[in-house]
Amino acid sequence: MTTIKPTNIFFWATIQKNFTLVKKINILLFTLGLFLFISCNKSENLKVESLKTATGWGYCITNKDKTIIKQTIIPVISENKSFKTEEEALKVGNLVLQKLKDDLSPTVTKKDLILLAVKI
């Protein structure tokens, strides 16, 4: 006749309890991860468009056809000058758009203008 030590029974019971606990934790983490993925990928309809001004170009950032930012002059500089080209306006507009998508402040610095090769 074979006898089973009580410690072996305790060992297997503990493993089974821990395995079900690990399964529950994994399901919880998966659900939490899925929720975060869905909430972080909310469908924002942010887009940038150029706009013609009397003295040059500017840009407008909209979300679902609602204007968020309308920039008709070059930011940061002391003069009220528009962008010389549509390309320059869109470069800065796309930078601001990316900052908004990254939940950063949409401010533009002189360094940003220099890096984007915007003529001041």
Helix share bin: 40-55%
Largest sheet: 3 strands, antiparallel
Strand order in the largest sheet: 1-2-3
From the N-terminal CA to the C-terminal CA, the straight-line distance is 95 Å
Estimate the global geometry from the Cα principal axes: rod-shaped
In terms of structural class, how would the helical and strand content be classed? alpha+beta
- Strands, count: 3
Determine Rg (CA atoms, Å).
Answer: 29 Å
Mean model confidence by pLDDT: 81
In what range is the share of β-strand residues?
Answer: 15-25%
What is the string of SSEs from the N terminus onward?
HEEEHH
Number of helices: 3
Task: List low-pLDDT spans.
Answer: none
Essential attributes:
120 residues; alpha+beta; single chain
What does the model show?
The chain is an alpha+beta fold. Helices cover 48% and strands 17% of the residues. It contains 3 helices and 3 strands. The chain has helices at 6-40, 86-101, 110-115, and strands at residues 46-52, 57-63, 66-71. Strands 1-2-3 form a 3-stranded antiparallel β-sheet, with helices on one face. The radius of gyration is 29 Å and the shape is rod-shaped. The mean pLDDT is 81.
Brief overview:
The protein is built from 3 helices and 3 strands. By secondary structure, the protein is an alpha+beta fold. It has a 3-stranded antiparallel β-sheet, covered by helices on one side.
Q: What order do the helices and strands come in, and which of them pair?
A:
Layout: H1 6-40, E1 46-52, E2 57-63, E3 66-71, H2 86-101, H3 110-115
Antiparallel strand pairs: 1-2, 2-3
